[in-house]
Amino acid sequence: MAIGTGAGNGRTDGRTRPLPLAPPDSPSRYDLTLLAIPLAFLCALVLGSTLPVPTASTLLVAAICGAAAVADALFCNPPTG
To answer: What does the alpha-carbon distance between residue 54 and residue 48 come to, in Å, rounded to a whole number?
Structure first.
């Protein structure tokens, strides 16, 4: 029985197949959108607890920023393919 060097993919010639779900080289626009939403709320909580501004006001601003990010991702720059 031949033992392959292709990391268990069944090949015996030393070549490997690429992973079917390999991570992208850089984050996409939609990855950054999903990152921006919780960051807006985190900043709102930090600013609301450190500044003499009501936390509800900072959370309202964060909600507006998050809604704007979602609207941009869905309607202004929708995903393709």
So the answer is: 6
Q: How many CA atoms lie within 13 A of 4 on its CB side?
A: 12
Beta strands in the chain (DSSP E): none
Give the other-Cβ count within 10 Å of 35's Cβ.
12
Q: Which helix (H) or strand (E) holds 65?
A: helix 55-71
Amino acid identity, position 19:
L
Tokens of 73: 């991702």
Q: Over the stretch 58-78, which tens digit does the pLDDT of each residue have?
A: 999 999 999 999 999 999 999
Query: So what's the pLDDT on residue 25?
Result: 83
* Stretch (H or E) spanning 11: none
